[in-house]
Amino acid sequence: MTLENLIGQVLLRVSGGEYSSDSAVKYEDVRHYLPAAVNYALNGSYWAGVGADGDHEVPGVFVSEYTGLSINSSGGKSYVTLPKKKINIGNNRGIRFVEVGGVRAIQIPQGMSHGQTTWNKMFGHISGYQEVGQNVYLLNIPASATTASVGAVTDVMDLLPTDELPIAAGYEPQVIDVCVKFFTDSRFTPKDYIIDGKDID
User: Is 149 helix (H, G, I), strand (E, B) or coil?
Assistant: First the structure.
């Protein structure tokens, strides 16, 4: 479902099925609130998987792949900059993978110094990455490498109206309900679909 299609459905429900330019809730109102609703559904599905069977993987439909990102250097550190904002999920899982020269890098633990000596003592000469804001820092990459590919969960605010929303099949109704209830003041806080499966009124 595209961004504009989902917003259209929210507007129809909020206006009772007869949306017009005079309606109190506008397209941009839903557009600005939508990231919170989508992020809520994504985090809910992620943590539900963790609780149910220990699955820490994010559904692939949520992941955007950015290829051919130019590798820059600053202060002796190599890095790429993500073209769009990402969602932060538990344990920095907003970044799903980093690939340089056809080889997948492993994540450098948060809090660990981005230092060559320390890294090599622990992991040998395996390529690694560490995210800081929009930058993904790279370690032990081939000297000839000029580009990298990154898989990340994109924040909805950076999508175009015609872009497909990163919502797994079956989650669209939840996102729409969260938005509708917010704008109709039925319930300010998004309801919990994921943990108990009962809070649906």
Answer: strand
Cβ burial 20-37 (10 Å sphere, 16+ → b, else e)? eeeeebebebbbebbbbb
Using the structure block, give the residue that is written with the tokens 């820092």. 137
CB atoms < 10 A from the CB of 19, how many? 17
Place of tokens 């929303």: 165
pLDDT bin (cut points 50, 70, 90) of residue 176 is confident
Once rounded to an integer, what is the mean pLDDT over residues 38-45?
A: 64
Distances (CA, A) of 176 to 1, 86, 167, 188: 12, 21, 11, 14
Residues with Cβ within 8 Å of 156's Cβ and at least 6 positions away in sequence, in order, are 3, 34, 35, 38, 39, 165, 166
pTM, rounded to two decimals: 0.60
Contact present, 64 and 151 (Cβ < 8 Å): yes
Q: Which of 48-62, 149-163, 178-192: highest mean pLDDT? A: 149-163
Within 10 angstroms of residue 38's Cβ, the number of other Cβ atoms is: 27
